[in-house]
Amino acid sequence: xxxxxxxxxxxxxxxxxxxxxxxxxxxxxxxxxxxxxxxxxxxxxxxxxxxxxxxxxxxxxxxxxxxxxxxxxxxxxxxxxxxxxxxxxxxxxxxxxxxxxxxxxxxxxxxxxxxxxxxxxxxxxxxxxxxxxxxxxxxxxxxxxxxxxxxxxxxxxxxxxxxxxxxxxxxxxxxxxxxxxxxxxxxxxxxxxxxxxxxxxxxxxxxxxxxxxxxxxxxxxxxxxxxxxxxxxxxxxxxxxxxxxxxxxxxxxxxxxxxxxxxxxxxxxxxxxxxxxxxxxxxxxxxxxxxxxxxxxxxxxxxxxxxxxxxxxxxxxxxxxxxxxxxxxxxxxxxxxxxxxxxxxxxxxxxxxxxxxxxxxxxxxxxxxxxxxxxxxxxxxxxxxxxxxxxxxxxxxxxxxxxxxxxxxxxxxxxxxxxxxxxxxxxxxxxxxxxxxxxxxxxxxx
Length: 446
What we know:
This protein has three domains: 2-284, no CATH class; 299-387, Transcriptional regulatory protein pf0864 domain like (Alpha-Beta Plaits), CATH 3.30.70; 393-445, no CATH class. It contains twelve helices and 24 strands. The protein is α+β, with helices and mostly antiparallel strands. Helix 5 packs across helix 8 (236-245), helix 9 packs antiparallel against helix 10 and helix 11 (423-433) crosses helix 12. The chain has helices at residues 14-22, 30-38, 104-111, 118-126, 132-153, 164-184, 213-218, 236-245, 323-335, 366-376, 423-433, 437-445, and strands at 2-7, 45-54, 57-66, 69-70, 73-77, 80-84, 115-117, 161-163, 188-191, 194-195, 197-198, 200-203, 206-209, 224-225, 231-232, 256-265, 276-284, 311-318, 340-347, 353-361, 383-387, 393-401, 404-413, 416-421.
């Protein structure tokens, strides 16, 4: 089965995971993929990639700029400040330091007084140019981080706020990893135990040991070690992304036939080892599932009698909403990260016509989606169930046709293969050439 193996001997951060996954695409496709990352639409953010070497190993380093500037954080080693490459995006977790001392006062006024809640994060993610399933992944990662932050600082999740500039930086990292994982579509992800580093990190609340408090909570149930490298190697963002995508943290029993290898490099050089995440994509045997998820951190998935549901189904009946009102509710639920939302006409008690609303979402988004259903409909009760999904592998292929370039959605697996042109491209060509949709479909398929 298609297997992604992550070597985390130098920890994990959002930028390093992004770079490692980017290198798994064929070299001729990387510029196009990088352009997609820049088209995600995180406000004020641009992403660039450069070739670097770490301890003689060539790899890719990602740089995220917010309004043209890079965010930097610092480690604390023996009471001295040192530049470190990993991003910290949370006001409760890190105090940012900037290289341009002449602008320090301006940065503090802008960076340290504008914060965004989890609801604000959802609004930002809803506006990104990403598939709905990728948006759901981004929200799920952020929800895990918010819960870890709330535990670390004794606050309610609703009281956790994210530092504006660092937050944009983090959204870019998280969205990039989620999008690349969606494009690569591994059937399983395995990883080595996580090296978190040692020493201390300089946080808003003072000097704290590595791993930082939120990182430690996110790594509950995950095998990790500190080692001899003095510095923070695994960030909250990195830990949350690993929790979201890794199926098992043991590579001992997984034999993989490697097809491509990628190295995602951090900014700093350590004398002990090459500062990089290594990603290997290939064919491997199915690994034993990782089941050490602490219920107190990811309690949204608790309560199912049978583990392993991939989506949660939420449904309710309403008989006092118009079609327009239900249409609006469905649009809002999809914007907020539902994988599917649709309404079916039904006959309710006493022969009254009504609508059955069905919403499918990731388990991590269940509670939030329940809130959104109550907010956007008139229902007073919601039913819940779990579903396993059987899905065809999907990809987008760009093809040259007699009328111009057209994107085709190709789905295959289970002995079948289907393909169809993207409606937006067909509609565009119909307008450009004065043809009907059916005429365009016949010409581009011919």
